[in-house]
Amino acid sequence: MSYVKGLAGIVAGQTKISSTDNQRLTYAGYPIEELAQKTFEEVVFLLWNTRLPDQDELLRFRNDLVSKMVLPAETIRLLSYIAREPQHPMSILRTTTSLLGTTNDVEHDEPPKILSKMLTAIAAIVRIRDDDPLIDLDPTLGVADNFLYMLTGKRPNAELSGMFNTVMILHADHEFNASTFTARVVSSTFSDYYSCLTAAVCALKGPLHGGANERVFEMLSIIVENEMDPLSFVAEQAHAKRKIMGFGHRIYKNGDPRAFILKEIAAKLAEETNNQKYFEIQQQLADYMLKNKQLHPNVDYYTALIYHCLGLKKETFTMIFAACRTAGWLAHVMEQRSQKCLIRPNSEYIGPKERHCVR
């Protein structure tokens, strides 16, 4: 056996859900560039069934998901206390995800209901923390549109609807990333869905996996609020040996395919919401990093600005990422269950040997 740090490049399992082979992101064989034009419901159906739905299936699936975007009264009552705690929203989400598995009759909850409840719970956390009233679902809207409506209190127009559906699709899955693999490990023990999702949220909460979009916007805010020259800021960070957030990816050495799509959305939203200064700074930083460090923006780089343009606080950015990624987590939990195989790797022992207790 050979040890590879962080399991980099190690094939830890097989999946039909998504792939990053040849630095291309595909869901069930479909390139993300084509799927970005679909609706979130179509892509969720694809991730869960490895095929796209026909129109009748899509309508039933959408109606099923939307109808389930309701939380039990007991969950709302408890959330009204939990969400107001001073902890980071990801800590609140960790507790809330576990809570969803304990309120009302959850023994027979299946992925459609679980996804819908997670989206509604995340929107509720945001609203409660902002002292805003909770928003009831609108049955005339789709899943992504309802989620955005519940977050902001504003029904999206057709253009914003299309852009937000694309954002959710691009974040829906990414093969065996840290949180997804964590969910699969828990699923391999045949634990329940909510336990798998709670573990995934815990993994995403770690700063080496989630939270990069939040730190990207912190960086942009420092530059704007202090009226700094972006390139001077980069020089200061380099001198202090600090990382410039939002650049580079373990897999995509020639650029993250999701970032190319998100860049266009960020540019449009920045113009429409009078946030061009942030986008201009992003372009200056991106040009510098590519020229001097040969690093491209990743999925978090433009997502940070998009979420800001939607009126969301930076502390909630990773939680919104979790809302999108729940669809993929559930797909992998179901697939791992079907494989009926406990994930239990070996380790290489490097501690002391041949020690004995002496009386």
From TrEMBL:
One of its GO terms (cellular component) is cytosol. Keywords: Transferase. PROSITE patterns: CITRATE_SYNTHASE. GO terms for biological process: carbohydrate metabolic process; tricarboxylic acid cycle. Pathway: Carbohydrate metabolism; tricarboxylic acid cycle. One of its GO terms (molecular function) is citrate synthase activity. Belongs to the citrate synthase family. This is Citrate synthase. The lineage of its organism: Bacteria, Bacillati, Bacillota, Bacilli, Lactobacillales.
